Structure formats: structure tokens, C-alpha cells
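ok so I'm stuck.
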Amino acid sequence: MEYRQLGHSGLRVSEITLGTMTFGDAGTGAAIGGVPLSQARALVDQALEAGVNMIDTADVYSNGRSEEIVGEILQDRREDVLIATKARFPMGTGPNDAGLSRQYLLRACEASLRRLRTDHIDLYQVHQRDGITPVEETLDALDTLVHDGKVRYIGCSNHSAWHLMKALGTSERLGLERYVSQQIYYSLLHREAEYELVPLSVDEQVGILVWSPLAGGLLSGKYGRDRTAPAGSRHTTEWSEPPIYDQDKMYAIIEALVEVAREHGHSPAQTALAYLLAKPAVTSVVVGARSGEQLDDNLEATSWTLDEGARQRLDEVSAIPLLYPYWHQRNTAHDRLSPGDLTLLGGRL
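replied:
not stuck anymore, here's the structure
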């Protein structure tokens, strides 16, 4: 297991993070969850034995039950594990029971600390943008939590590039704690993050944590052009993430992935994870599991690397079109591109 620096911080994080959206069976995540305490304990033990040093959860997962399970499992080995959790989505029905206001964030953090049975959260992430609350208020509340010792580092999730850049600029202007990471959806099936979020991460030294790196299981090898989704799969439920806009392209990508995986003697899931782990600014991929076999397969992705030829084949079949202004930058600014620019344009000059 490799340990990578998380953005512009001194924190070292395993390249695989154990995601716990499957822990518990209520509320948000119930469609893909159902993992009880005993099974969750076995999965955590397996992950830690393999060298995983961070577990990611959120207050909203199973209405807090995921955090409770994580807290119970880790209570006797808290200092050996980094805990990442999130806040933003409703945890009640009142007018101040959601969002990123000072009122809500301070209360949400205290509630997470109780459920997690800990006195601090290693990485506290805002789960989504709040367009109503001033970003200054959100960042000041997070800064308070850090300086009170309840949070070690802060990050964001599911922001667009201008949202994140505004937050970074505000932190610098006001001398507040800065986001060290962004947790984003990024996969071989959907590479839109490469337009803005990846270049920003390279330029501003923000670590990337990837959620759903297997596109909700679509890159597991169980889906195909002539095969229906297996029973119990996420995409047979009401869960609609990630959305599929072009089925022909999706199947072409899956077919190429399966072929590359077979040639390298690894599973499609391992190959999809290895592909992402080689991408710029990616610190760790967050993987969830319902079984030890599934987790073991995912963990194996850290034991090998894709060769350049295989990466190019997967890049080509999954390529995103150059939207404006990127095609214009490629055509007219290629003599003065930054390292961030090159993450998108470098292979197209």
C-alpha cells in the first residue's frame, strides 16, 4: 500500500480509502447498504490489515448509523486510523437542520463526534455546495472547529471549480483554514472532472479523493452489452448515480476495460482503479464493499500499475471532447501551458 500526501498538507493517506456508505440500512444509502455491524467489522479489519489508514463516512449515511458503526468498530484503535466524515445534507426537519451555516456545522460536527465516539475528526468535509450561506461564514465555522481541536483538516466535496476556487481565495484573504482535499466523482466512464477540477487540484495543491471510482459498479465486469444487470446491483434500484447519457460509449469503454484487464491478468475492477490511481492529483480512491471477496479484489489494485500502452487505449476509448475554451487553448496557447493545463491538453497537442 502506498501512502500519498493529501494536497498541501502533511497528512499521508493510503491510496485506497474504505468507504462506508454500505454500512447500515436506513435513509440515504439504504439502497446500496445493508451491511450490519458484524460484517462491517470484518471489512474494516481486512482493510486495516492491508494497510488502509483512512475510513470515509458521512452523517447522512443511513441517518447516522454508518458513523455509529465506524465509531463502535474503531473505539479501541482510534489513533491508528484516520476518520473522514461529511456534513451538509438534512439530518432533521427544521429550517436549520441542513446546509453549511455556522449554526448547523458546529452542531453537526458535535453530533458526528458523539456517533463516532471520538474527540476529533481527521478530515471534515462539506458534502455539497450551499449557495445560500456565505462562503465566509462556512469557512469561519470550519476554522473554529480546527482551532478548537475538534477537526484536524478540512475538505470539500461535489463542488464545481469556481466554487472551490472562491473558497480557496476566501481562505487566503481572511487567513482561514484551507481545504486540503476535494472528494469528487471520477471514473473511466465519466472524466468530466478533467476539464476544471483536476487542473485546479494540480495548480492549487488540493488532493483528490475519488468517490464511486467503479461508476456505481458499472466497471466491475458484471455489466455488458448483451448482459442484463445482475440482481441486487445498484443500477437495478432507484439509485440513479452516476447517470448514463450514452449507452453505446459506456459499453465500448466496458469492453475495452475487460479486454485490457484480461491481457494483464487482473479483474476489470482492479484495472479501473489502477487507471485512476495513475491520474494527476489523485490521492486516494474510496471503495465500498459488501463482501470480503469484493474488498480483496479492490485492494489488489494497489499491487500493480498499468503500462503506458494500456493507459493510452483506455484514455482513447473514454476520451472527453474538448469544449470551449479548451480547444482554443490547445490551438493558440500551447506554447505557454501550465502543469494544470497539461493534465487536460498535454495528450492532445
